[in-house]
Amino acid sequence: MNITKRIFPFLFLFSFCLNAQNDTLLYNGFDYAYYSTDGLIDYEETNNLNISFQDWEIYSDNFAPLSPYVVNLFKNSEYYDEQIFRNWHVAKYTFQTDTISDGDSTIYEITLVHGLRSFSWVDPADSVLNILLSPNVWIAGDSSILRWKSMPMQGPRHQDGYQVYIIEGGGKQAVTLPLGNIEPDFVMKRMSVLNGYPDTTNNSFAYIEKNFGFYPENGVMHTNYIPRQLDLDGKVDSAYQHTFMQEFEINLSHIRDKYIQVAFVHNSYDNYGIVLDDILILSSGILGTEEIKNNNVRLFPNPSKNFLDIELGSDVPLIVDIFDISGKFIESIRLKGSNQIDVSKYRPGYYLIKVTGQKDHYSATFIKKN
Question: Is there a contact between 309 and 335 (Cβ–Cβ < 8 Å)?
Fold first, then answer.
């Protein structure tokens, strides 16, 4: 049997699900890579696995061509794909670098993982608008948190910026987001392309940030850089410091009993690019094991592979409605003499469950595992 394509999950998404806390409402680690038999990553199919298959969306309003510099730099690369490189796409990045001494030699061990990358090197500059939109997420508690990781692809004096928007859910598409009508909930500073070339002999991050065109003033900024080794003249080019991931978060405690969607918008100047990873929404209420209002509903085992048991304390479950993570209705189940439902036919992922008892309505989440 001739297999033409293979799928390799480098960091198994659903192994995360197995170990996830019951309060995980949303997670995407962009961990799957889709390879052809020649060993090259297929960006389109990899994006399908990490984006479309998990009900995320991407949209690019970047109709400008890639910068000739980038085309010349990458055009002979086995991975070059102009259409994919003009939007968010899954790609490898350096997670960490370990230095190991072996006698008189120094060995650098580099750990690579996958994240979601977006370039801003286009012509003309400042014409990038790449949007990543999450599925609908039901926020029921009063202490949820959005967390994610990001890093610039080069920096600090080529740092790209982006914004994060928390919008009311309802099946919105990336192309229809009302970004001009709402303020972002998070702003990552960016370096002005006009001021992107300060003194290359100065590797002080504080000096560069203070003197060379980072804006807006009220934004956050990447600071996790490690200078490379000195060149033969004893100088360090501040543009080429090693960049590493940092974690950021937004408090969602002001949101309750509604669907939301999260939009990451990359619209930086012509600096280089940005990488996102491990986008996560947590609730400190123990969703999935306890009822949201009365703390007396239990779903177990959670995560579940085949069957899910429901307990409502003194109440008796009558009807169970199942919704997927996007808010799409899956099915309604009337329980007859059993508090167990069969979830074996569901696709792996996160689900919202609404239970009608004799006294009240209850909501929780559960994870269907492989």
Answer: no
**Rounded Cα gap, residues 240 and 263, in angstroms:** 29
Q: Token digits for 127?
A: 């014409």
Q: Which two tokens stand for residue 140?
A: 């029921």
Tokens matching residue 84:
């994919």
H-type helices in the chain, by residue range?
13-19, 43-50, 68-74, 82-85, 205-211
What does the pLDDT profile of the chain (370 residues) look like in tens digits? 333 344 444 333 333 333 334 467 888 888 877 777 777 788 888 888 888 877 899 998 866 777 787 778 777 776 677 777 788 999 888 877 666 666 666 666 777 888 999 988 877 777 788 999 998 888 876 678 999 999 998 878 788 999 999 998 877 889 888 888 899 999 999 887 776 665 666 667 777 778 778 888 889 999 888 776 666 666 666 667 788 899 999 999 999 888 899 999 998 876 788 999 999 998 764 433 333 343 456 888 888 889 999 888 778 888 888 887 666 778 888 887 778 999 999 988 778 888 877 777 777 778 888 7
* pTM attached to this predicted model: 0.70
Distance CA 4, CA 10 (A): 19
Three-state DSSP class for residue 343:
coil
Contact 219, 160 (CB under 8 A): no
Q: How many residues comprise the chain? A: 370
What lies within 8 Å, CB to CB, of 329 at 6+ separation is 321, 322, 323
Q: How far apart are the first and last CA of the chain?
A: 25
Domains of the chain, with CATH numbers? 5-283 (2.60.120.200), 298-368 (2.60.40.3080)
